Amino acid sequence: MVNYRFLGNSGLKISEITYGNWITHASQVADDAAVRTVHAALDAGITTFDTADVYANTAAEAVLGRALSGQRRESLEIFTKVYFPTGPMGPNDNGLSRKHIRESIDGSLARLGTDYVDLYQAHRYDHETPLEETMQAFADIVRQGKALYIGVSEWTAEQLRAGHALAQQLGFQLISNQPQYSMLHRVIEGKVVPASEELGISQIVWSPMAQGVLSGKYLPGRPVPAGSRATDDKSGAEFIQKFLRDDILEAVQRLRPIAEEAGLTMPQLAIAWVLQNPNVAAALVGASRPEQLADTVKASGVTLDADTMAAIDAALGDAPNRDAEDTYRVSPERRLV
């Protein structure tokens, strides 16, 4: 079964392996398969589910809502996000304005079939809306009982500090950040993690397997496997390209004997690695088939000793991206609509 961790400086516990439905529900897999996979997650002890209104242009939220229908709501932690364009994509159908946040939370709750979400997250930082307006809108949502806690995604250290300060002034908790983090993408370690530790903010990390590259199935000098994420535009093919260089793929293959020595599969090693970081509350995993979860959940509770962690660093060498400046390049300078 899956272990639990506190989320930020709060009393909320979440499953350290959290189910995310970014590129699966209403996109990669049929709805009935999605429901079976959610039920497999529940059977494995996963109680925390992460989605966003933008996934499949709101349809992924609806699929998750149907999949969780009939479950005891108090036993679940449901997360969603707001920022990216949804609906007809008019001028106010994106960003973190008061208008868009208010309309988006009501839409998300209706699709998810719940009166509240446990965590409502700013999917990116909105450079075109005053931060005070955004945080006041989040404060109102918390007071209305529509969200219990507030989080963000891919914010810089400075943005986290400013948002945390305003949240304190407005009387609610900013408890999490959702960045990309894996053995191959370590840009948050330089600035974001130290600031988060100081503020009592946890990381809920996405792509802990580097879009599947850390599974070891992509081989240097070989075509990408047919039907894999790298061949499917709906499955984040653009995100995986940066990891498909031969030097990176060669480094990943050097992890195989380390995983075998630790008694782990390659996916388990990748997920266990991110969970060694004490600032990480959860690793987001997706699945298109129930049996995939049976493998990945075994990473929960695994402790990698110092020798194993050192061997991983030695095997990867210069392959990981550690450039802290990359955290400043994620949120668009202007809204997408």
TrEMBL record:
InterPro entries: K_chnl_volt-dep_bsu_KCNAB-rel, NAD(P)_OxRdtase_dom_sf, NADP_OxRdtase_dom. Keywords: NADP, Oxidoreductase. Residues 17-315 form the NADP-dependent oxidoreductase domain. Pfam families: Aldo_ket_red. Belongs to the shaker potassium channel beta subunit family. PANTHER family: HYPERKINETIC, ISOFORM M. This is Aldo/keto reductase family protein. It comes from Leucobacter allii.
